[in-house]
Every structure is written in C-alpha cells, then in structure tokens.
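User: My collaborator sent over this chain with a note saying "see what the structure looks like." That's all I know about it. Can you take a look?
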Amino acid sequence: MSINILQYEKDVWKTADLLIASGIKQSDFPKYMMPFFALLMVESRLVREAKRLKEEIGDIEIEDFIDMFQLEGLGYNDFVIRKNKTLKDICKNDKTFDVDFHAYLKAFDPETKYLLGVDKGTEEEKFLDISGISGLLKKKRILFETVQAWSEIDLTPYNNSEITTLEEHIKRKWADISAETAGEQYTPDDIISLITDIIASKIEDNEKFLTIYDPTCGGGNLLFGVEDKIKENFKRPTATYGEDWNDSLYALAKIESRFRVGSQIEHGNTLTEIKFIEKKFDVIVANPPYGVDWKGYQKDIVNDTTERFVALPSISDGQFLFTQHILYQLADDGLAVVVHNGSTLFSGDAGSGESAIRKHFLDNDWVEAIIQMPTDEFFNTGIYTYLWIFNKNKPSNRKDKVMLINAANLFVPLKKSKGKKRKQMSEDNRIEIVKAFTEFKNNEYCKIFDKWHFYFNKQSIILTNVDVDGKSVEMPNKVDRNGDVKEEKSIKLEPKSIAILDSFKENGMKAINEMVITKFENKNYSSLANYYEGYFKSFVNDFEYKDDAFVLIDKQGNSFHYDNNKETIVVKDKDQKESYLGNGKIVIKSTYKKKTTTKEEHILVTAEITKDLQKDYEIIPFNPIEEENQKQIAAFMAKYITKPFEYLDNTIGVEINFNKVFYIPEKLRDTIKITADLKQLELDLANLEKELAI
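Assistant: Without extra context I'll predict from the sequence alone. Here is the result:
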C-alpha cells in the first residue's frame, strides 16, 4: 500500500472548515461530507480506469472508446470520459460553475446517479442525496468553495485497497461524531489483517473461485479489506458479496464494488430480505451490530420460513440472529469469522434463546475457536470483543473440540488515540495468535476443550422442606379410579376459629370466628359479593401461619400453630398435650358462594395442611452419554441435596466463560510477612504517640 494515501485524511477534514463557518453542527458533518467523498471515489476510479483502457487499446475513435468503456460496467460520466473534464477543471471558472457542476452530475450513468442521489424526487430513495446537499450548501453560499476543496484531493494514483483504507479512516471519524452511526462498529485495519491471516491459514492456493460474503457489510471496509489482503498472498480469483441496510454506507460499498471484478453489493435488511438465498459461500466475515434491538422487524423474524433461526435471542440484541443467518449461508466446507461482544458467550440461562443458539452451534460442531480481543481495539467502543471462528469442515483432530485463545494482552499501544481505539495488534501479535490457532496446543493463553465442557445440566427439582428432625407432614393415601394408591395433596381441617395477634394493626388482633359468613357490618360495601372482593379475600390472604401468634382451632378443640424454632407444625389437644406433625404449611382459604335453591349466598372459610414444597434447580456438569449423564446427576443430588425431592425437567444449557478459563488467582502474601508488618505498624504507632505526648 502506498503509505502516503493517509495524507489526504487531513485534507478531507479541511473541507469541514467551511461547514463549521456556516454554522452546520458537527454531528451533521457526515451527511454533508459523505456524498462528496463518494463523488471523489467515483471520479478518481473513472479517470484511472479510462487511462488503463487507453493504454491497453491505444488510440481509437472516441465513440468506440466510450462503447468499450461502458462495457466494462464501471459506471460512466460524459464530462470525465468524453470531455476529459474533472471536478478540478470545472472549478477553474467560478462564473460557469453552477451550470457546469449541474451538467457534471447529470452526466453520470443512471445507476451512479441513483446511488449519489442526483435530482431525486421527494418520494424516491436518496442514498447519498448529493443534489439535495448541494442545494443546501448553495443557500449557504459555500457550494463552489466546498466542491473546489474536494477537487484538490487526487485519488487517481491509488488502487482500490488503498482508497478503501482511506475510506475506513474517514468513516471511523464520521462514526465518532454522528449520532446516526454511533452504534456501528467499524472494523479497524489491524483486526481485518488478523481475520485475513486466520482465513489464510485455512484455505488453499488454487484456481478455484473463492466467494467472500459479509451480510452486514456497511461501507465494505471489512469485506473488501479481506479480499485485498487475500489477493496479496494468493493467486485465487475472488468474488465478493455484501448486503447492508444503511443507505449511505450501502451506496459507498456499491460504488466501490463496481470497480472490482466479481463483486455484488445489495441494499436491504439481511434478516428479512435475503438477497443471496440461492448461494452458499466459502468465506463469510462480519462485524454485525450488537446491543441493537430487532423489535422493529420482530414479526418478520418470527414468521421467517427459511428455517435459519433455530432460536431467537433477546429482543434487545440481534447479533445472534445475524450469526444464525451466516451459518445458514456458509458452505458445507466453509469458514466464517464473526466479531461479537461478550454477551453472546454467556447471556441467557439454560433454555433461553441465546443458550439454545450456542448449543445449536456446538451440537453441529461448527465452532473451531473463539479469540478474545484486547479492550479499546475498536473506534467507538472500549469493551472486550471476540472473534468466533466457525468451520463446517473441521480437521479430524479438532472434531468436537473448541479452542479458546486469550489475546487480551497481545497489543501495542497507539501513540495517539483514534476515538476510543487506543490499542492495535502488531504483525508480531497477529503471528502469535495465528501460530496458536494453527498449532492447536495448550499454553498459557490457549486452552483446548472438548465441546461438552461448555454444556451443563439445569436440573429442576421440587424440594420438600423438613423440620429440625428431618420430618415433613405425612399426607394420607387415597385410591384413585384405576386402583392406584396415591398421596393426598393436603389434610383437610374443620376449623372452628382462626386468630392471629398483630400488634402493628390498629385493632391489635385479626381473627376469624365464623367459617360460614352470611352477613357483614361494613357500610362501604353494597353486597356480600362486593364485601368479599373488596375486603374479606385480601383479609384472609394476609394471615401468615409462621407468625408466632397464629393459632387455628378445629371443631374438636385441637389447636394448630407453627413453631419457627423447630420448623414444625405443633398440635395441642384439649388437655394441652403437644405433638409434632413435621414441617408443613397451614393454608387458609376463602371462597364466595352464590345463592342456590338450598343455600343462601355465603363466604366459606376453609383450612388445610400441606407439605412445604419449594421449586429449585441445580447446575450440574454434563456428560454426552445419556446413561452416564443421569448417573452424574444422581450422584450430585446424593452428595449435595439432603432434603426429600422429586425430579422435574432437566434443561441442557451452553455457556462459555472466558474469565473462568483464564482466571489467575491473586497470590496471597505469606502470613509471617503480614504479622511482621502488623508488628512494625504497632511499633510505629507507639512511637508516634510518644512524639505527640511530647
């Protein structure tokens, strides 16, 4: 790459001086600058390609030359190709500028005009809207000066890769200042180089076309950057495919694609409009948006018929939707490298969409490696990021294995920050990472696991709580219709009265002395039904059987209360003789009964004793052999669960915890040294007290 192309970065930003002087907000700079940068890209390429073609075919009639040039499919501008006049030429005469500039824009071919937004109607799509922006600049009387400033930047000596590099730097600054692009993570050149190095370590150098796809291509810097770097080291012909929903970034990528052999860029939402549904790709690279919700097209995702989405992630973050799409479009022997934040590693419990998606990836054995990047590597976020490497044709020695590479400390600091980017990976750093990836050996920053290591059982259970003696209430048995003996769910009581002392209430005592209530004394309610719904139901629900003052008396004169110290239900008979039923619940219920032919309307209060059941779950290591997995669960329960329990559903989850894998515990100081330090501090304190006394 010509090292001096980045000298134009400051020249591009000089054009913003005119915007500042005209009172245009900095956050609006991308809207005003992007169309002209695209215009510059188009013109420089047209000039360069026209020169190349002339050198190839020699002097011919201009009409024949134009026909041949248009067959190249690069776009066309009559001013540039026929008249040999560029922006710089039309800026030489400020008196004819307005007419010439308008004619210059109109001289583009229809597709280029469509992308640039030349003379678009109010209802038509404006990808870059150069006519509209030019009109605004003309009103501010700076159109000529703006175009003149842009025309001084000559990109014709540079190839596609070099111009893409400059474009990436400019777009990064736009992302930093624009609220519209703040959520987009542009992939820096050092990460593009690392992604390419990883891909290069897995592909062969042959004559077979290598198809490269980016479903969230933005302006194309990752897609085209990978292509260019592969071409530097491989003779293989390449074809690039991309799609993006952002109008202006799509236009930049589309313009770029027209000057590349075998490149196709489409506009649309990858998750709802699959532009390349019939294709499977050899290589897929992507840095999809993360932390961005997909609520706006939730209905389309839920009703998707492609079977791409085995599960749906949280509505607040759609990055795993893109990853599922990527795996859907990856060839059976394909390789994908996808940038994610950390949430895709561990967010979502077992049974959640995220966990189910991770499980799907590992079940199919598509995950070859995950690499943790340093913080502060991207332009507008300082968080940890991760490269997921998916391989649908893993070597036999890597089957059912997953490699974790901790590259968090493999970086060099930048001398000058670029937005939030304060670090970058040097060539040596990249070589070290790729070496670890290709060697496939455990070391201090590379760990290899059976994929099952990341699976776990979430075993749900119903616990029966017991008293201090390990006893719970025993339920009576019943015989069902089939003749099977089963345990009753409760012991029905016939209460005479229920009372609970509550010193925090105004009345001091809450009590129920009638179990069948037909009348009430409360002028606030017009009927027994209203009285029940408005007052009595909640009054009964407020009784707490574990309250020390709770007492229930049945018709036989037995009293029931709960002993919190022994965690048991205590029964006292008429003679005050105590017995213990075991741990359980005393449940008070009330229901309103409508009037019938035999009974008047009434409120019925009932009481029963039930077991104190508690739903819980245990996280237990997983074994892929079902029989062994069940034995492992049983052994775990026998070791750690002391209460009676019943099994409920078992859900298998998947979580990848980098911090746990690479955690290095802090080495504690020796106790002898700590004691010596404390004695020294005591001595210093005593000396200080003596000095103060003096």
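A starting point for your reply to your collaborator: Confidence is low (pLDDT under 50) at residues 179-183.
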